[in-house]
């Protein structure tokens, strides 16, 4: 079944199937067209205070906590990643996706043990209720070789090693693209630095010491992707064809930092089941909470459903960065999120295992090879 927004005979709400680590869940979703979000639904938060004194950091933490408990989505400005680093990565994404298909096959995700490399368009289906994702992706996972907090590669603990998912074939197969690897890694490093800094604010927002998560983010889930949503023809826009860019889903790790270009197209599901447009605000990144952090906070912070449409003739690009804990580190619900009245709802689990369970569900339910 596909969702339509134009047919007047449609019911006001339809059922949307979503994937989780523990099997499908269903949401009632309005069939009315998406509306612009209100500032209180997806607020813009000035994070320059994370570079300030403790009082400023705490005031930032209070704002982030409110947004994380509400929609679980917010924009951040003054985040410290310089515009040139972003634009260079964006240019490299454009170069990569416009290479011939035969060349992109050299870094196909089919060669990956994990989620590295190029994913062809129309191969994934994020939500079983929606069409195939009309998106291409190039992704790469955390590799300690490039961590800006430099690592002694000979001293990585064995249990950490088992959770590492970086793979060199993505760089070997793109060696012919001038500066491609450097520009990708530079952008990834900037995101990783920002994510580690923001996580300290998240710790404060959960009434924990700022360095609480430091020891579980020494080799963290830090996966970058370039997403490419090809422009569509004016005929299919006129017909409001239901080709989805990226189907409805929640993100998996602690939080995501997302740069999106000016085309727009990101939509966020409100608590009452209406789609909200998360329109691009220049100079900002979108931050959203993922399933693992929702679990660790006993559902206090919200991992919210979102999707993408590109209903424009222009190509759309976005660059998400997914941040979590060391994949081998088993963590339970945080002490500040449990009480006699609110006992822990979840068993301890590692970030790596919770991702593995989610992808296992996808493999079991996917009909497309
Ligand atoms: O492309 C976007 O704007 C969002 C991407 C996204 O949700 C994802 O990659 O998980
Ligand atoms: Fe997402």
TrEMBL record:
One biological process term in Gene Ontology: small molecule biosynthetic process
Lineage: Eukaryota, Fungi, Dikarya, Ascomycota, Pezizomycotina
Entry-linked PROSITE patterns: FE2OG_OXY (PS51471)
PANTHER family: FI07970P-RELATED (PTHR10209:SF881), OXIDOREDUCTASE, 2OG-FE II OXYGENASE FAMILY PROTEIN (PTHR10209)
Keywords tagged on the record: Iron, Metal-binding, Oxidoreductase
Family statement drawn from the similarity comment of this UniProt entry: Belongs to the iron/ascorbate-dependent oxidoreductase family.
InterPro entries: DIOX_N, IPNS-like_FE2OG_OXY, IPNS-like_sf, Oxoglu/Fe-dep_dioxygenase_dom
Pfam families from the UniProt entry: 2OG-FeII_Oxy, DIOX_N
Domain Fe2OG dioxygenase: 216-325
Protein name (Swiss-Prot/TrEMBL): Fe2OG dioxygenase domain-containing protein
A molecular-function term among this protein's GO annotations: metal ion binding
